[in-house]
Each structure stands twice: as C-alpha cells, then as structure tokens.
Amino acid sequence: MDLRTFLMRSPDFPDIAFTDDFASDWTAQRLRKGMHLARQEETETDEFMLLEGCLASSICDQDGKEVCVGFYVGPCVVTPNIARTRNDLSLVSIVATTDCVVARIDSDVLSDWMISSEAVRDWANGVLRDALSRKADREWCLAALGGAERLTWFRQAFPGYEGIFPHTLIASFLGMTPVTMSRLRAQRKTR
Fold first, then answer.
1. CB atoms within 10 A of CB 148
2. d(CA 32, CA 110)
3. In terms of C-beta distances under 8 Å and separation of at least 24 residues, what long-range contacts does 183-190 make, across chains too?
4. Cβ atoms within 10 Å, residue 64
5. Which of 57, 75, 129, 140 could form a disulfide with 70 if both were Cys (CB 3.0 to 4.6 A apart)?
C-alpha cells in the first residue's frame, strides 16, 4: 500500500490535495527481514508508518535479555516517537520480521504540520491515544491475567498474529517462556 492511500483511509484528512501535500514530506524506505528500523540507545528523531510487512519492537536489559513490547502489521503507524524515545534516544529496538516498506518523517517536521493543520493534529493525537491504549491493555494483561488467560487475551487483541510472528516473540510479549506458551497452545488443542 502506498502512503497516500493509507492516509486517505483516515477521516481526519479533508481532501486529496491536502493528503498529497502532507504525504510529500514522508520518505519511503525498504527494509529486509532482520534489519533494524531503530536501535535501543541510539539517536532516533523520526516518526514511522509501516506500509507493508511486519515489525516487532523490543527492550534489552543490562543482562542482554530481550523482551518484546510491540507488534506491527502494515499498514499501520508505529508507536509515536514521544512514546518510544527519551532525549532523542530510542528506548526500544524495532526490527523487521519480514521484508517491509516504511515511510518516515522527522518528528519536528510532523510537529510543524500539527501546529499548522488541525487535521494532522487530530490524526496524530488519535495515533498517540491508540498507542497508549494498547500499552495500557498489555500492562493490564501482564498484571491481572494468568498464562492461559494472557494467551486468550493475545488471540483476541491480535487476531492472526500467532501465524505471523515467531512464538518466541509472542511468549516474551506475554511475559512467559516459550516452553510455557507451547504447553498452553498444546492444552488448548486437546480441549
């Protein structure tokens, strides 16, 4: 999908000419499977839209243990820069789990658009609200649900993702080991 088509799906954008003007400030980039869009603790000042493919975001602790914190299946907007960076340093690594096409724009350029255009401001605020809602839902899942219920929640919140993303990433996202997830999946099949 191209950026213009994706943006036209939003009710916030008033017309084709406006959408074309806004889209012209974004740059397309192809990523091969395994390439990083962002790396934890490296400078990152861009906003991203995933137009095609799949991405996963993760956080690595001091001991080198990686925890998956997000999934993206295009077309979609990647969590806004303000929610995934501090002082222009990325808090997460984002890697392509398939070949991807991404559109990017500098955060300051997008901020200028938000100041000058109510449509862009409404769209961007909606994107941020959705990202924060997804984050809160996951936090609730991890705090309130047991393993089987977490897997059920994941299947409802992310239909089809079990067939798209490696189960090791899903297990990490759900705060369980791959072995536990495998057992839970096997139990469900026998019921």
1. 13
2. 26
3. 184/147, 184/148, 184/151, 185/151, 187/148, 188/148, 188/151
4. 6
5. 57
Report whether 64 contacts 55 (CB < 8 A).
no
Query: What is the spatial distance between Cα 169 and Cα 57, in angstroms, rounded to a whole number?
Result: 10
In angstroms, the Cα distances linking 191 to 30, 165, 184, 185, 188 are: 43, 24, 11, 10, 5
Distance CA 141, CA 151 (A): 10
| CA separation for the pair 184, 71 (Å, rounded) | 21
pTM of the model: 0.91
Burial class (CB in 10 A: 0-12, 13-18, 19+), 53: buried
How far is the first Cα of the chain from the last one, in angstroms, to the nearest whole number? 40
Residue range 120-143, pLDDT digits in tens: 999 999 999 999 999 999 999 999
